[in-house]
Known about the structure:
heterodimer; A: 489 residues; mainly alpha; two-stranded antiparallel ribbon; B: 492 residues
Amino acid sequence: xxxxxxxxxxxxxxxxxxxxxxxxxxxxxxxxxxxxxxxxxxxxxxxxxxxxxxxxxxxxxxxxxxxxxxxxxxxxxxxxxxxxxxxxxxxxxxxxxxxxxxxxxxxxxxxxxxxxxxxxxxxxxxxxxxxxxxxxxxxxxxxxxxxxxxxxxxxxxxxxxxxxxxxxxxxxxxxxxxxxxxxxxxxxxxxxxxxxxxxxxxxxxxxxxxxxxxxxxxxxxxxxxxxxxxxxxxxxxxxxxxxxxxxxxxxxxxxxxxxxxxxxxxxxxxxxxxxxxxxxxxxxxxxxxxxxxxxxxxxxxxxxxxxxxxxxxxxxxxxxxxxxxxxxxxxxxxxxxxxxxxxxxxxxxxxxxxxxxxxxxxxxxxxxxxxxxxxxxxxxxxxxxxxxxxxxxxxxxxxxxxxxxxxxxxxxxxxxxxxxxxxxxxxxxxxxxxxxxxxxxxxxxxxxxxxxxxxxxxxxxxxxxxxxxxxxxxxxxxxxxxxxxxxxx
Amino acid sequence: xxxxxxxxxxxxxxxxxxxxxxxxxxxxxxxxxxxxxxxxxxxxxxxxxxxxxxxxxxxxxxxxxxxxxxxxxxxxxxxxxxxxxxxxxxxxxxxxxxxxxxxxxxxxxxxxxxxxxxxxxxxxxxxxxxxxxxxxxxxxxxxxxxxxxxxxxxxxxxxxxxxxxxxxxxxxxxxxxxxxxxxxxxxxxxxxxxxxxxxxxxxxxxxxxxxxxxxxxxxxxxxxxxxxxxxxxxxxxxxxxxxxxxxxxxxxxxxxxxxxxxxxxxxxxxxxxxxxxxxxxxxxxxxxxxxxxxxxxxxxxxxxxxxxxxxxxxxxxxxxxxxxxxxxxxxxxxxxxxxxxxxxxxxxxxxxxxxxxxxxxxxxxxxxxxxxxxxxxxxxxxxxxxxxxxxxxxxxxxxxxxxxxxxxxxxxxxxxxxxxxxxxxxxxxxxxxxxxxxxxxxxxxxxxxxxxxxxxxxxxxxxxxxxxxxxxxxxxxxxxxxxxxxxxxxxx
Lengths: 489, 492
């Protein structure tokens, strides 16, 4: 189907920003009730328009579609240019689905500055969408950085432990260092080709030395943002001090931005670098998966455990990219998207627990199955997803990554199996400790099961991951649209 | 009317006004000084009138001057660059006193700067800045530099009951006198080498200077001494130590004036000097300014990191920002100069606006000094805190605010002129500086209030426009870039 000239993508991108602006104009006296509705409607309309992208997207035409261009500073070829291909479509859809849930997740939890909170969330959505869709390297960098600003305030103002308040600064420093490498790489490309236009650069075959030079910068930047060992220390620390909705946004989308960056740039712009030096990112990925799984196994702080689980899942994406085959990269994309949904669900579950008992300590829970049976069931579905059980979402991506891994490096494959075993052990151990066993106190006995809002969020997410587990074809279709064509080139 | 006088009508206006104020003051009792400052000198309508008049004049001049206009026996010049700079200095300078009257008169009273000479001295300094920017001769350069500094020192010294202010004044005076001495010595040697003090003629004599090794050596030494003089006045590494104490010990209102008048005019003058009389020494000044800039950025960034006093923090940050401008010049590229000027103007605007918002805050009728003092400001004054945060984020160069674009242009030029390691090194220093600003925002928003802060901020001031401009800069940058390029081209 043909859409004609209609700036659908720009409307999707800027609609949440417009919503944020509108929220800031709402009178303080009515803001408490209205701001939330404006936010959820903005994000729902953005979700609806994103579904139109699927309708009008032509899977038979390779390359970017829905391109919108606006020249901002011709002298440095700084142009606002957005477009969508299969890869972008997957990440934009995930963002568009998760944001209404995220707003719903914080529906009753924000006690102060609701207007500001809602505006920041909508701004974050807009910036993220722009980063995903940007076809200008500078704008990609710019919006990667811009995403940090709303998060800085979201972590600082609505965080959990407010005694030291060092978390926002840590977050900014780590991510700014990551951005530094990205910016340096982008400037180097600009100096070489005098353009930031991604489409133009994709048509140029980069010299091998340049690929190595710039590829290293891009890779380090994404390693830091994806919290891969040895740049992982910030993520558990930030998660421990963030509220559940912010953690959802942080891991499922902002950290996933690094997954997107890796998938977008490394195999297509720097294939020689990836083929010749894939052993380094590969080793890092492998070590990260093992190390993060082991540390998660040792945690008694539930949210930190989830954070380490997120780090390990980031390792899988890196592993898929560094193997540099069509299957592994398809697998990395599948994994990034499904794990985004699974981790969002798990972080929301930690928020559900914290809202009831004000603790993340595993010893404070026990026997929850008896008092919260629905919650226990849904939590188990997400745990299965994280473990990579068949039909529970996480399986297909891991399978696609492991097939080429076993083909090329059998020993590595075996190590990954061990790490998956670790994941299963710590998730089952967490489940046993928290949901089974005897009820530890009267506080647990008085707990109520999920309310309608919480059920809605978790059921939608669990449908999503089970759906992707049973029928991953849409994601495979978008991956095929992006990578098969390009990798064959 | 004489064409020279026509070109310098704004200076003439300001001169008449400043002398007029001194004259009127003589007919009033000393006890009425305070009332005089807050009622007569600072009515908003007067300033709106003055600014409108001068802005119309400058726009008219901009449209009509396609090339140089020389005046007063080629002692002064008027081109688009000088006009644009004067416009910036005017809006920062007059805006500082005129359009923010109610808030600032309280700050002036708090600092005991209610003497009626103060406004006139400030206007004299403004005239000095205008003339400095327009200098076309080393003699007029020296004289206008003195006209700029001496009234400022006198204004600082008006507060007689404070030891720290006297100390700061003396320090400022000595630093500037040293600067002037170097400047004068350098000018003498340049005259010896070039046989003239006129910028244009030195440029024309460059073949002759290059021909004789003795002249060239003398010219180089003269340039170095002149550069040292200017660096002392701008406060660039290694002549920056005095500025931190000045920032801490003098009135906040003075600090803003220092940035708005002295640094902007001196750096634009430096830009003009590099492009004209010292163009032949490009091989000397390019690496020199690049390294001065690098060291200044490093010194400023790491110095600010451990500061808890807001004034000392901004002083170190100021050194770093001046370093960025020097780096822009040090690239030696035309677009590098354009970027440096955009950076300078953006920084001056943002920094002075931040000082405005800061001066409106007080506790028990005392200025706020340390970072601890502003804890919890965000919950008490959300609008003001939001504006301050925007300004700080722009100063820390986070996208998509104005400061980010200004710094990005400089990065592009360094990458073109030098190599990528410079970019990486500078970008890492930029992160260090960013952390300093984020610490202030952290105090404003994330920590609980310790003391009741009062604010005299009223949104009906021109300074409210600056944070909005900082956000909307992305839409204006193309126009700004074209204007600055056109202005700089008129200098060539």
